[in-house]
């Protein structure tokens, strides 16, 4: 994907790209750091100020397969009906896997 800067002069590249694509600012910053986003064919920092006519090249990141699998853990269900489920989560139970770099 290629963006040509036509407006918003003097804005940071991470902000410009996130506002003109569906990517989040944090994912844009990571992609800039990894060299997946280039300006005029060169690697820049996320603080780079875009200028009119800059050519921003965006190379999508490779999607890595997740090796996560659900565990069969007994849950303490406090209340349940057709619209809501209340669970008494036990201490130390991870609900979102941690992302390691």
| Span of the ends, CA to CA | 26 Å
Average pLDDT taken over every residue: 87
DSSP helical segment count = 2
CATH H-level superfamily of the domain at 2-58? RNA-binding S4 domain
Sheet having the most strands: 4 strands, antiparallel
How are the strands of the biggest sheet laid out side by side?
Answer: 1-4-2-3
Query: What is the helix fraction of residues, given as a range?
Result: 10-25%
| CATH fold annotation of the domain at 2-58 | Structural Genomics Hypothetical 15.5 Kd Protein In mrcA-pckA Intergenic Region, Chain A
What is the β-strand count? 6
Runs with pLDDT <50, length 5+?
none
- What proportion strand? 15-25%
- Using the alpha-carbon principal axes, give the shape: elongated
**Which series of helices and strands comes N to C?**
EHHEEEEE
In CATH, the architecture of the domain at 2-58 is: Roll
**Structural class of the secondary structure composition?**
alpha+beta
Q: For the record, what CATH class of the domain at 2-58 applies?
A: Alpha Beta
The radius of gyration is 21 Å
Can you characterise this structure?
This protein has 101 residues and is of the alpha+beta class. It has a domain at 2-58: Structural Genomics Hypothetical 15.5 Kd Protein In mrcA-pckA Intergenic Region, Chain A, CATH 3.10.290. Helices cover 17% and strands 19% of the residues. The protein is built from 2 helices and 6 strands, in the order βααβββββ. It has helices at residues 13-20, 25-33, and strands at residues 2-4, 37-39, 42-43, 55-58, 77-80, 85-87. It has a 4-stranded antiparallel sheet. The protein has a two-stranded antiparallel sheet with strand order 5-6. α1 (13-20) packs across α2. The protein starts with a strand and ends in a 14-residue tail after the last strand. The relative contact order is 0.19. The mean pLDDT is 87.
């Amino acid at each position: 994907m290629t963006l040509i800067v036509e407006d918003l002069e003097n804005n940071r590249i991470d902000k410009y790209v996130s506002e003109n694509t569906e990517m989040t600012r944090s994912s844009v910053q990571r992609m800039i750091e990894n060299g997946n986003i280039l300006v005029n064919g060169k690697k820049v920092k996320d603080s780079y100020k875009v200028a009119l006519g800059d050519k921003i090249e965006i190379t999508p990141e490779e999607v890595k397969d997740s090796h996560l699998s659900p565990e069969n853990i007994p849950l303490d269900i406090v209340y349940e009906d057709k619209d809501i489920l209340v669970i008494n989560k036990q201490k130390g139970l991870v609900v979102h896997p941690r992302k390691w770099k």
